[in-house]
Specification:
about 260 residues, alpha/beta, six-stranded mixed beta sheet, globular, disordered N terminus
């Protein structure tokens, strides 16, 4: 009887958490990973702002002089430059850092940079009505998206294995172990008019591991980061083709997807 009561209580907790997290936008913002410190890659750090009524990224900038936007209005394609890694910071958390140092986790920054560029390109290829066609090289009719990977902290599979086991013993409170095991990925981007070189847009965002009861992503060092990259790519593509009064929906900080 006690076992049944425990599992009923746990199920109730999970569904309550889902209701709160998925229905309350302010709670989702509260639990979203905090903004990463801007890197020198961004050219307007002092002017970065937040406008979540339009875009869910932590920070972005656009020119106050509308003439640059007007000059870029006729551009019809987008070139996505190779992702820069020269601003990538060291791993922050002791547990994942130790796993990288001992070789149980590989520091796959080049692979993730390739994936980041590829996913942003695929977002335009699979869009039902893309604002830009994807270009293989910069040209006079294109805008150029420059991306930088600034943080890449892997999830700790070993730590999450222990945390998951504890959930079946002490319940959801074991999820606090995510403070030690969770990873994050932070990117920055700049969109410019290829023809004139004028900056049209700058942005930055940081995503941590999504809250889960159980997901295979918790046992893949870059599983959550890979998912974040796909979400970013889709959000950015949607942003480019929608009017200024359309809100691009944010990513949820909780998932039931076991994969």
């Amino acid at each position: 009887m006690m076992g049944m009561a425990y599992f009923s209580l746990r199920a109730a907790f999970v569904w309550l958490a889902l209701f709160v997290l998925c229905s309350c936008q302010s709670t989702n913002r509260l639990l979203k990973a905090g903004a990463a410190k801007p890197s020198p890659f961004l050219e307007h750090q002092a002017q970065l702002t937040t406008y979540r009524e339009r875009l869910p990224f932590h920070k972005f900038w656009w020119p106050t002089d509308r003439s640059a936007i007007n000059r870029a209005a006729k551009q019809t394609s987008i070139y996505i430059a190779p992702v820069r890694l020269d601003f990538l910071r060291q791993i922050k958390k002791p547990l994942p850092r130790k796993e990288v140092e001992t070789g149980s986790i590989l520091r796959r920054e080049r692979e993730m940079a390739f994936l980041l560029r590829n996913e942003f390109g695929r977002a335009f290829l699979r869009s039902p009505a893309p604002r830009y066609r994807l270009a293989s090289k910069p040209n006079p009719e294109s805008v150029t998206l420059e991306l930088a990977l600034v943080e890449l902290n892997p999830t700790s599979p070993k730590g999450n294995a222990v945390k998951t086991g504890l959930k079946f013993v002490v319940g959801p409170i074991a999820g606090l172990g995510s403070l030690l095991t969770a990873g994050n990925i932070a990117i920055e981007g700049k969109l410019r008019n290829t023809r004139t070189g004028e900056l049209l847009f700058e942005f930055a965002d940081n995503q941590g591991d999504k809250m889960t009861f159980y997901s295979l992503r918790d046992f893949r060092p870059y599983g959550h980061a890979t998912h974040a990259i796909t979400e970013w790519a889709n959000q950015f593509e949607e942003f480019t083709r929608t009017p200024a009064n359309v809100r691009v929906k944010p990513s949820l900080c909780f998932t039931l997807d076991p994969l």
